[in-house]
Amino acid sequence: MTENNSLIGDNGSELSLPIITKLRNHPKSLQIQTYLTDRFDRERYEHIYSVQETAVRLAICHNADVWKTHLAALLHDVVKWMCDDELYQNVSRYNIQLDPIEEKMPALLHAIVGVKYAIDLFEVTDLEVLEAIRCHTTGNASMGLIAKLIYVSDFSEPTREYSEAERVREVAVNNLDQAVHDVACYKIGFLLKKGWIIHPNTIHTYNDSLVK
Ligand SMILES: [Fe+2]
Ligand SMILES: [Fe+2]
User: Fold this and answer.
1) What ligand has the least distance to the C-alpha of 44?
2) How many whole angstroms from 75 Cα to the centroid of ligand 1?
3) How far away, in angstroms, is 79 Cα from ligand 1 center?
4) Between the CA of residue 58 and those of 121, 142, 204, what are the distances in Å?
5) Using an 8 Å Cβ cutoff, are 204 and 139 in contact?
6) Residues of the chain with pLDDT under 70
């Protein structure tokens, strides 16, 4: 399914609502949404829907493929319901090779295992969609457009309570790369303050945004 972005207004806001509704009513979306509602509490489900709405609006602003963006947004946290043990079991089941930091940070695993579930349960094969799911937590150097949209939207969707969310959302409308940079800065600062491990892909995201 490919949407015709020429039918949509420049600002991607008021005119995007019918598109968002249409995307959510697609049979593939209904299949995914049933899976999500069966497994998530209201708060997580609202987050996923909010990422979807934010990302699709931004996709319209940046002439990205709205269907791919929608699909990546719906699936980005698809296995977030799993406990750490279950995530590690899936890492073994899929024979996924983790790096030493991923091995110590179960919070990163839902993005990695999520890619496998997107493929196996929902037959997603599009590499841009899979990259967006894989990168949504840490980011990465040279992310594609869909991955940038999901990385920024996951951080800045309106149910996020930190003050930076609204500012990043506004920046992203006109300058997506600046928004990616701002998210990476915030995440690195947060992790440093906590004294937690920083995955190299988060650093790569920051460096890549500066080089550009
Ligand atoms: Fe996530
Ligand atoms: Fe998320």
Assistant:
1) 2
2) 10
3) 9
4) 27, 19, 23
5) yes
6) 1-15
d(CA 105, CA 114): 15
Q: How far is CA 152 from the centre of its chain?
A: 7
pTM for the full model?
0.92
The answer to whether domain 12-211 has CATH 3.20.20.300 is no
| Residue 92 Cα to ligand 2 middle (Å) | 23
- Are the C-beta atoms of 60 and 16 separated by less than 8 Å? yes
pLDDT tens sequence across 159-173: 999 999 999 999 999
Q: Go through 191-201 and write b for each residue having 16 or more CB atoms within 10 A of its CB, e for each that does not.
A: eeeeeeebbeb
Condensed to tens digits (0 to 9), the pLDDT of residues 94-117 reads 999 999 999 999 999 999 999 999
